[in-house]
């Protein structure tokens, strides 16, 4: 954290105290499988006075009974209060750790009891919730390959069949603890930003074979603190959004650090992409703004602000670029996808909050396939949706059930 941000916090609300700061809300009391839960964090100074400014370093982690971490989203309201939204995939006894400047706030860690939705008889059944407006999305068949890693592609895959899967939980090579962004190169490499392992696994061939990994934890140039988005530049350079370091790092295809961009401008870069001109598209989750940079770091333009208007965002996550060089952005808390020109003019938007076809519950990853179709990872509904762009993009032509999807890229 920069001394400038810290000094601003001191001037506006005194020295922040994790031990005086507190959490409240339904997310500490009633948590239901597959439904968003919200917790409000109020920051206070040593005397217990409420802080009136934002930009505090706050972290939130939900731990499952087996010790894995459920990802969530922190929204800075810029008035000393923050909202943490999370969704859990199964019932059980969980814990929530809320830290301010790496120290637990009052009452943290909190014990959470996650229950099934009313009328659902098992945790498996909770994956298919009750009726909602619009046609219900169909779930995928659980392929036999889902239990093995990896396996070769089938000769004649059926619709929704899992082709193969790669990776297991852990901190070794080829293992993950919090997968975020995913990209693929023209040479067939699959790159994965592993946020909690503070590395990028430039790792898998098209058949799932491990290749390599790079990244050292830290807050200095060339180090990674919380990598989230990853993209491949036409030059072969690897572009990584570092949420906690508040910049974008550029590495060579061999994983050697070359430069950083956006330092001093970005507040919380989440997703990155590259347009047809080689410009770097950065989705700033905290600033609710899309930045466009040259690879040299020069800012070309930016657009977007916080809100629910057509040209506004509420916690945007990732971006993709189509053949028209239009920028497609997932708007997490507005439950929509928005398409913009490179100049930031809105082309179209689609989606609303819900569980039916064409609806979202916190969309995150986005990609464009070879036919121009838009593929969206729906984090809250645990689906991947495809929108046919040959017609009006108002409904998914097919859906594939996933588990708490995050970053997404397609390479064909």
From TrEMBL:
Residues in Filamin repeats: 13-114
Entry keywords, A to Z: Metal-binding, Phosphoprotein, Repeat, Transferase, Zinc, Zinc-finger
Composition skew (Basic residues), residue ranges: 128-141
PROSITE patterns linked: FILAMIN_REPEAT, NHL
Ranges where the record places region Disordered: 116-162
One GO process term, biological-process aspect: protein polyubiquitination
Start and stop residues of the NHL repeats: 163-206, 211-254, 255-296, 300-343, 347-382
SMART domains found in the cross-reference section: IG_FLMN (SM00557)
Coiled-coil regions, chain positions: none
Domain of life: Eukaryota
Molecular functions per Gene Ontology: ubiquitin protein ligase activity; zinc ion binding
InterPro entries: 6-blade_b-propeller_TolB-like, Filamin/ABP280_repeat-like, Filamin/ABP280_rpt, Ig-like_fold, Ig_E-set, NHL_repeat, TRIM-NHL_E3_ligases, TRIM2/3_C
Protein name, per record: Tripartite motif containing 2b
Species the sequence originates in: Acanthochromis polyacanthus (spiny chromis)
Highest classification ranks of the organism: Eukaryota, Metazoa, Chordata, Craniata, Vertebrata
């Amino acid at each position: 954290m920069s001394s400038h941000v810290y000094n601003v916090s001191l001037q506006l609300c005194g020295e922040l105290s994790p031990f005086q700061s507190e959490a409240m809300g339904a997310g500490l009391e009633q948590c239901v499988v597959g439904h968003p839960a919200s917790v409000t964090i109020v920051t206070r100074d040593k005397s217990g006075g409420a802080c009136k400014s934002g930009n505090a370093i706050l972290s939130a982690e939900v731990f499952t009974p087996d010790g894995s971490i459920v990802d969530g989203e922190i929204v800075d309201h810029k008035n000393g209060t923050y909202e943490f939204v999370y969704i859990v995939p199964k019932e059980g006894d969980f814990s929530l750790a809320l830290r301010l400047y790496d120290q637990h706030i009052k009452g943290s860690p909190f014990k959470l009891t996650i229950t099934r939705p009313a009328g659902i008889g098992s945790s498996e059944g909770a994956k298919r919730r009750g009726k909602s407006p619009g046609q219900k999305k169909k779930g995928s068949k659980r392929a036999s390959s889902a239990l093995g890693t990896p396996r070769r592609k089938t000769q004649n895959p059926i619709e929704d069949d899992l082709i193969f899967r790669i990776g297991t939980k852990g901190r070794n090579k080829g293992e993950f603890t919090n997968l975020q962004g995913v990209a693929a190169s023209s040479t067939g490499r699959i790159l994965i930003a592993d946020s909690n392992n503070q590395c990028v696994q430039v790792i898998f061939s098209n058949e799932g074979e491990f290749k390599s990994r790079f990244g050292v934890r830290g807050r200095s140039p060339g180090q990674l603190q919380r990598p989230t988005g990853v993209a491949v530049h036409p030059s072969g350079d690897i572009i990584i959004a570092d949420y906690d370091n508040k910049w974008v790092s550029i590495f060579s295809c061999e994983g050697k650090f070359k430069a950083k961009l956006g330092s001093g401008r970005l507040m919380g870069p989440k997703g990155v992409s590259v347009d047809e001109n080689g410009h770097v598209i950065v989705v700033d989750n905290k600033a609710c703004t899309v930045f466009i940079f040259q690879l040299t770091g020069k800012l070309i333009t930016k657009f977007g602000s916080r809100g629910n208007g057509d040209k506004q965002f509420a916690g945007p996550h990732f971006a993709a670029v189509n053949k028209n060089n239009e920028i497609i952005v997932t708007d997490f808390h507005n439950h929509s996808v928005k398409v913009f020109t490179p100049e930031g003019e809105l082309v179209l938007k689609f989606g609303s909050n819900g569980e039916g076809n064409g609806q979202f519950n916190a969309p995150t990853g986005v990609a464009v396939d070879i036919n121009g179709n838009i593929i969206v990872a729906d984090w809250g509904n645990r689906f991947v949706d495809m929108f046919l762009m040959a017609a009006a993009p108002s409904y998914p032509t097919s859906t594939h059930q996933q588990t708490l999807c995050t970053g997404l890229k397609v390479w064909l």
